[in-house]
Design a protein that fits this description.
six-stranded parallel β-sheet; 8 helices; NAD(P)-bd_dom_sf
């Protein structure tokens, strides 16, 4: 079977990594690249750098990766859908929910694979966490809490911390819990003089009743990337910066103190840090996209899922603006 012919639009800070991995990916050949401002990182190799989507289409591509600024996602994605090209768009899916819906509907109507690049789903620590939760290691899940904090990345200019960073936490929470958001309440801050928010604290409730909490900012000199899932049997903590996963078991004890025997609490039990195979998450994401095109499995983040993540992010912004809790339940 011939290799899938791949095109890449956007050769910036993320696009350069996509170019590297598309060249490594079995069954895929990178045949065309596009960037409106040129190849600033020198990753095009012997490929001519086009300026428009048509340059990719002229190369008869089967699949495309879109790593342009968020405001361009809808325009580029709709051109590719109209041309019959399977496409993965970097997160967030689009600039707003209306544009995201148009993209999802366009790829669905064309019968194409449409994916969104929510890379954290492919982090080895989170992959193992979800497997262990599905196997019942934590029992009933009570809470999912995330922290994603660190210095401001110079690459970001068109969105705030919610759509850029918190969208990772929204997507991974839905995926780990296998449940959408029912409501969300958020508070934001603007501390660095930029147009968009640079700090958010958000609390949500999923449709299955799990409580969520997200602390995200671009203001901390300490880089933190953790996801903690607490359940009746203990807690799993994923450090996605190091791809480590640790289990903290609930201890058991007997009490002879009659006045507190009716109180059911927990104690510290054993803790285990698991040894994991640590493959690059972006490579795993590309493999999932390729395999979805080939009909082998369905591990991608679909455009509908990416749309829900964007809608929750927009609800968090609305909540911060209005000081209210936003209900996300669909009629």
């Amino acid at each position: 079977m011939a290799d899938l012919r791949a095109g890449l639009i956007g050769l910036g800070s993320m696009g350069r990594h996509h170019a590297r991995l598309l060249r490594q990916l079995d069954g895929v050949q990178l045949v065309a690249v596009v960037d409106a401002v040129g190849d600033s990182f020198g990753v095009a190799g012997d490929l001519a750098v086009g300026r428009q989507v048509q340059h990719l289409l002229d190369a008869a591509i089967d699949m495309a990766v879109v790593a342009v600024p968020t405001a361009e996602h809808e325009r580029v994605g709709l051109e590719l859908a109209a041309a019959g090209v399977h496409t993965m768009i970097e997160k967030p899916i689009a600039e707003n929910g209306t544009a995201g819906l148009r993209l999802a509907e366009a790829f669905e109507a064309a019968g194409l694979v449409g994916a969104v690049g929510h890379i954290e789903r492919f982090n080895p620590a989170l992959q193992e966490m979800r497997k262990r939760i599905e196997d019942g290691q934590l029992g009933e899940i009570y809470q999912i809490a995330t922290q994603r904090q660190g210095p401001f990345p110079g690459r970001i200019a068109d969105v705030g911390v919610i759509k850029d960073l918190a969208s990772h936490d929204i997507d991974l929470t839905v995926w780990v819990a296998q449940s959408d958001y029912r409501s969300i309440s958020a508070r934001t801050a603007h501390r660095s003089g930029r147009q968009h928010e640079d700090m958010v604290a958000a609390t949500g409730v999923l449709t299955n009743g799990i409580i969520t909490n997200h602390l995200v900012n671009w203001l901390s000199p300490l880089k933190v990337r953790t996801t903690t899932v607490t359940g009746e049997k203990g807690a799993l903590v994923a450090d996605t910066a190091s791809a480590d996963l640790t289990f903290y078991a609930n201890g058991t004890f007997l009490t002879e103190w009659e006045s507190i025997t009716s109180f059911r609490g927990v104690t510290e039990g054993d803790s285990i840090r698991y040894a994991l195979a640590k493959r690059e998450p972006l490579l795993l994401e590309h493999e999932a996209f390729r395999d979805a095109i080939l009909g082998l499995d369905q591990r991608i983040v679909t455009m509908r899922e990416g749309l829900h993540t964007l809608q929750v992010a927009e609800a968090a912004l609305e909540s911060a603006r209005t000081g209210t809790t936003v209900d996300l339940r669909r009629d």
